[in-house]
Amino acid sequence: MMVTKPLAAKTALLFHKADHFELTLCQRMNRMGYYSAIRLFFKGISRLGDGVFWYSLALLMPLLYGMDALYALAHITVTSLLCVAIYSQLKKRLVRQRPFISFADITAHTAPLDLYSFPSGHTMNAVNFAILFSAFFPVLIWLVVPFAILVALSRVILGMHYPTDVLVGAALGMLISFGSLAIFPVGAFA
Q: Is the residue at 190 inside a domain?
């Protein structure tokens, strides 16, 4: 308990400074959401990034690659569950307010899935999925990498995240996916 209070005070100060440092970029990107076509496009991307895109893609893999795809999908599933566990714990401990909560001129162009923004879980999962789908099914790289980038952009444009939330989420997603491939080069379930 003693460690939590000083840590919370230190992270609050750090996030306060970072929030103000990133505010201009956040505002510029968020203003793009005032254009209905852009807002609707990125809301759709963000919604698909909730899992719909990745789960649909996963369901197609056994049809395209046969039963061997199930081993890769098991590996991908385990790493995605690890991503969820890590980002949910980080959000609970670091409690960075979302940009639209901290600044009145940032608009929430969609509803948040939870209270806090650091790190971006959408981005963390998108990067993890993109790397692993590309590693196990290389033909998909041209689909999954651009989609992951769009997911990351959507989170800032929609007012849900600061750019550092997205960058740290991407870094963590890369660390988890590349780490899992280093430990299990052919997949954890091969």
A: no
